[in-house]
User: What shape does this take?
Amino acid sequence: MATAGDSHTRVSYRRNATFCDRIGNSVMGIFIGIILICAAVGLLWWNEGRAVRTAQSLDEGLRLVVPLTSTSVSMDQNNGQLVHLSGPLQTDSILSDSTYGVAINAVKLKRHVEMFQWVETEHKREINEGSQTRTETTYSYSKEWRSNVVKSGSFDNPSGHHNPNSFAVEPRVQVAASVQVGAFYLSHGLINSITNYRKLKPAAQPSGSDIKLHDGTFYHGKDPFRPEVGDMKVSFEYAGLSAKGSSHFGSADTVSIIAKQMGGQLTSYQTIAGDALEILYFGELSAKAIFDKEHASNNMMTMGLRFGGWLLMFIGFSALTSLVTTLVDWIPFIREVVSLGVCVLNMSMSISLSLTVIAIAWIRFRPVLGLTILAVSTLPFVISKMKVNADKRSH
Assistant: This one.
C-alpha cells in the first residue's frame, strides 16, 4: 500500500477472462437481453397509456372547469364541481424554532442542517498486463460540508478520519395546520405542492447561547472561518408566505388552483378519463394557461420515458447480440467491422420495435396516428430490402 499526503493507494490483481469465459458471459447476456427487451416493451406500453389518459383527463378538466369570480365566499351550486380560482395564500399558523429565535407566518418552514465531516474519495486505474489486470485504487480524504452523516467506519482507512455518528440538530420541515385562499381551505395534496422555498435571513443570533450568526446562517462551533470536524451550520427556508403575516418578508404568495370544491374545501377531482386533478401553480394564471402547462409537462414526461424505453431496448439488443462480437473479438480488423455492423443493427431494431410498441398503443385511441407511426417503424427494413434488390439487379 503506497501513501502520499492524506491519501493512499491499494493494488490488486484479477485474472482476465478467457475466450471461454467471454462466451459464457455472452450466453448469459442473451437471457439478460430478453428480460431487458420485455421490460422496455412494458415501459413503453405503460407510458403511452399513461400519456393518453393524462391528456384526456386534462382536456376533460378544461371542458368542465368553472372559474370562480370571487374567493371570499363558497357558493353551494359549485359543490362537487371542478373549479378554478386565484388568490393570496393565508394561514393563521406562526411557524417558529425557539432554539434559533426564528418565526414566520408561512405555509412551510424548513430547517436545513450541514455538518463538517471527513469524506473519502475513491479513484480506480486499471492496467492490462496480458493474462491479468492490475487495479490501482487511490483513496483520498478531505473535509467537506455535508447534509447527511458520512459513516467514517466504512472508510478504507478510518484512522484519523472519524466523523460523529449523528447530527446534534436534526433537519425538519414544519407545515401549517390549515391553509386558505379566500374562504377555501386547501387539501394536503395542494399544500404539498407549495415548494417555492426562499432563504430566511435571521435578524440576530439567539440570546444566551454560544450559537453564532454568520452570513444568514447559524453556526455551531468555535470559528466559522476555520471549521472543525463536527461543526454544524443551520439555515432556514420558508415557502408560501401568508397574507396575514408581516410585510417584513415581502408580499404574500399568490397561487392559482384547479381542484374540486366541497363546501369550503378544495380537494382532488376524479375525471372520467382516469386521472385525479388537483393542481396548484404560483402566480395568477387562467384555467387555460394552467392546463397548457400541464399538457407541456405531460409531453415532456412522455418523451423522457420514451427515450428511457428505447435506451433500455437498445441495451437489451446489445446484450442479445454480444455473442456475435465475442466470437470475432480475437481478430482485430474484423472485430471493429462486425462491432460497428452489430451496433447499427441494434440501433435499427431498437428504434423499430420501440416505434411499433408506441404505434400499437396509439391505434386504440387515434388509429390514423398509430398506423402512421407503425408505417414509419418498418422503414429501416423496407429500405434495407430495397437496397438488397437494387444490388441484385446491378449484378
About this structure: The mean pLDDT is 89. The longest strand covers residues 106-128. Helices lie at 19-64, 188-192, 287-320, 322-328, 332-363, 367-377, 379-394. The first helix runs from residue 19 to 64.
